[in-house]
Amino acid sequence: MKNPLGNLMQQAQKMQEDFKKAQEEIAAMQVQGESGGGLVAIIMNGKREALKVTIDPSLVGDDRDMLEDLVAAAINDAVNKVAKMKKEKMSALTAGMPLPPGFQMPF
């Protein structure tokens, strides 16, 4: 006789391991956010930490307010890309699971 509760616990444990692995993979991923047609670029990891900022030399010495706006826009672009990447990765893991609408994973 099979133990349905035991099977369910094994499935839950495997899912937990899969989520942990996905979290680690996401944290290691990198995205590049850009603004100003690539004049400002930000490299960000999956933990939303900015790793590198690149500013085209043509912007140095120009209007400081514009440069600050472009840096902020590039950061926002990178943050949005990380969020999209996380959503895609997690949706692959939760495919077929009956989760309530709007349910957010705790990471």
Describe the protein in words.
Homodimer. With 107 residues, the chain is an alpha+beta fold. It has a domain at 28-92: Nucleoid-associated protein YbaB-like domain (Ybab, Chain: A, 2-Layer Sandwich). Helices cover 52% and strands 17% of the residues. The protein has two helices and three strands; from the N terminus they run αβββα. A three-stranded antiparallel β-sheet has the order 1-2-3. A hairpin with a 4-residue loop joins strand 1 and strand 2 (40-45). Helix 1 runs antiparallel to helix 2. The longest helix has 31 residues, at 64-94. The protein is elongated, with a radius of gyration of 20 Å. The two termini are 38 Å apart. The mean pLDDT is 82.
Helix content: 40-55%
What is the CATH first-level class name of the domain at 28-92? Alpha Beta
CATH architecture of the domain at 28-92: 2-Layer Sandwich
Radius of gyration: 20 Å
Briefly note the CATH topology name of the domain at 28-92.
Answer: Ybab, Chain: A
Question: How confident is the prediction overall: mean pLDDT?
Answer: 82
Largest sheet entry: 3 strands, antiparallel
Poorly predicted parts: none
The secondary-structure class comes to alpha+beta
Relative strand content: 15-25%
Global shape: elongated
Strand order of the largest sheet: 1-2-3
Instruction: Please give the alpha-carbon distance between the first and last residues.
Output: 38 Å
The total of beta strands comes to: 3
Short synopsis of the structure:
This protein has 107 residues and is of the alpha+beta class. It contains 2 helices and 3 strands. A 3-stranded antiparallel sheet has the order 1-2-3.
